[in-house]
Design brief:
Chains A, B: Keywords: DNA-binding, Repressor, Transcription, Transcription regulation. Chains A, B: GO terms for molecular function: DNA-binding transcription factor activity; transcription cis-regulatory region binding. Two copies of one chain form a homodimer. Chain A is α/β, with parallel strands linked by helices and 326 residues long. Chain A folds into three domains: 4-47, Orthogonal Bundle (434 Repressor (Amino-terminal Domain)); 61-154 and 289-315, Rossmann fold (3-Layer(aba) Sandwich), CATH 3.40.50; 156-287 and 320-325, Rossmann fold (3-Layer(aba) Sandwich). In chain A, helix 1 (4-11) packs across helix 3 (30-42), helix 5 (72-87) crosses helix 14 (289-304) and helix 11 crosses helix 12 (243-255). The N and C termini of chain A lie far apart (62 Å). Chain A is built from 14 helices and twelve strands. At the A-B interface, helix 4, helix 5, strand 2, helix 6 and helix 12 of A face helix 4, helix 5, strand 2, helix 6 and helix 12 of B.
Chain lengths: 326, 326
């Protein structure tokens, strides 16, 4: 691999001059600049970013820690984050915590050691305490943490309200909501809050079912859904707290001979690719994933530059009607 | 942020001694070691990995370049690669090339500058030439490149044969295969080869349709599929070169009043989560994604350590029967 010294030797200049060209420091004539560039080209010289970042306080890398990557919501998020970061000249260091506390801590330490500009955390379990010792910006998505630098969320309560309103409007009388993981703080809790509020105002019967961490980690809800539908034959409207769960509702309904949307109307959450790929396509609450990803990247960059950033940013959601409610 | 000097001051030892503990070099008494660890803990000292990697030829980072992240196949791949890498103590630097030649070149340069241990490339367009100048191991997945270090593939031809055999066995007489992107070398070409071979041997009619780069980039095949099904009313078996396309076949069939599997039998490719989430679930050719990911990571590590690695590794596929062919 060609070094700075090789480049200097090739163009007959000192290492200091070549380094000044590379770092755009001080006065350099156009002729010198061209000479250096030509030598770099000839030798296929790649500046050592590792060495360069030593002189800076941080690298142009953003750490991303998420509990799942194959979950459709997280894969769309990482895709959008990579896109937003790349536009600003930042790279992504990706870590999958699988929701385990100790792995999250470990990855936070890894990010610190690697002098990332900041970390974006999507966590199911992250605790305020874990953040206290860190000196780099920590942006949480869909989770507000007291000690974090900033949080980006969508309006989950509004999402729950929109879903309840849409199901009631389409004539449903017995609702079921598949909500968050029990005994853990999840965005789905606020979705339930909004959903319950509308149901109570309109006097519509609803049942809320929480899921288990095991189901969440394995992306597997068939047994839970079959049990609930067997338990109550009158259910005619379901709000699932993710499109992933909604897709499984479609499968369970088909197995039990219930037609969607004729017998049961269904609304998911997230508006990921999957919701457009099922048969029938799933009506859902649109999360502004692209905008949330861009916002998280901007917050990392701004706070790494020492700017003051909003502690909490909440983006609106919207209802997307597809065939599962028509 | 605490430095090595702070740690040394806190435990009353020299920087050299602390550094020796940190790098596990030379003889250090247990007492000294404990002292240093205690001071590091107290000061929340994070070793500067950027500085440490300067003394090594490469960092423990693997670059991953893929054309899509939100495509279900690639999101499962990245999830499995991250998992395999993490087990070996490696981090992932992720880049989305969106299939653009210039972005792939740019990311390869970025990986070189960042002294990654190696790069895993999933490319739709990568050309042998682009690789020639690189000094780091380049592992391609599902693509063989003459100048690459090593390639990991699945047996695509066998996959095509298995799909044709399964459709014919279940009684299909007029087959349709949705194959790769026209005018580009894709794994789907070998799937077509195997499929055609079996059809010709058995004397079964089949039509092969190629897709466009635009459809591939937008993950959108509805218009193509509707057109083909309208053109030929006798089609009773479809082999789609991805589960993503197969999910759209289900949607188009439903729109056209054709039942799967009663009127049309359907087989996808990849065996990603999506194939288990559609209604009905999709029979598919299983790619050993987990094993391919582990193999790619092992190849990066082995070749970065200077070991001789196989130029080409081809893993077997298998047929998974679900409801779309029953």
């Amino acid at each position: 691999m060609a070094t700075l010294k090789d480049v200097a030797a090739r163009c007959g200049l000192t290492v200091t001059t070549v380094s000044r060209v590379l770092n755009n420091r001080g006065y350099i004539s156009d002729k010198t600049r061209s000479k250096v560039y030509a030598a770099m080209e000839e030798l296929n010289y790649q500046p050592n970013e590792v060495a360069r970042s030593l002189s800076k306080k941080s690298t142009n890398t953003i750490g991303v820690i998420m509990p799942h990557i194959r979950h459709p919501y997280f894969s769309e998020m990482i895709s959008n984050i990579e896109n937003a970061a790349s536009k600003k000249g930042y790279k992504i260091l990706l870590a999958n915590s699988k929701g385990a506390d100790h792995k999250e801590k470990e990855y936070l330490d890894m990010c610190t050691s690697n002098r990332v500009a900041g970390v974006i955390v999507f966590s199911s379990t992250v605790k305020g305490l874990e953040f206290a010792n860190s000196n780099i910006p920590l942006i949480t998505v869909e989770r507000f943490v007291e000690n974090g630098t900033a949080a980006v969320e969508c309006d989950n309560e509004q999402g729950g309200m929109l879903a309840a309103e849409a199901l009631i409007k389409s004539g449903c009388k017995h609702l079921l909501i598949i909500s968050g993981v029990s005994k853990s703080v999840m965005p789905a809790d606020d979705r339930l809050k909004g959903f319950a509020k509308v149901c109570e105002e309109r006097g519509v019967v609803y049942k809320a079912v929480s899921t288990s961490m095991n189901q969440y980690n394995n992306l597997e809800y068939h047994a839970l859904l079959t049990g609930e539908l067997k338990l109550d034959n009158e259910i005619d409207g379901i709000f699932a707290s993710s499109d992933l769960i909604a897709a499984q509702v479609l499968q369970v309904c088909r197995k039990m001979g219930k037609r969607v949307p004729e017998d049961i109307k269904l609304i998911g959450f997230d508006d990921v690719l999957l919701s457009r790929l099922t048969t029938p396509p799933i009506s859902t609450i649109h999360q502004p994933i692209k905008e949330m990803a861009e916002m998280a990247v901007d917050l990392v960059i701004s706070s790494s530059e020492g700017k003051v950033v909003p502690k909490r940013t909440i983006l609106p959601v919207s209802y997307i009607e597809r065939e599962s409610t028509k």
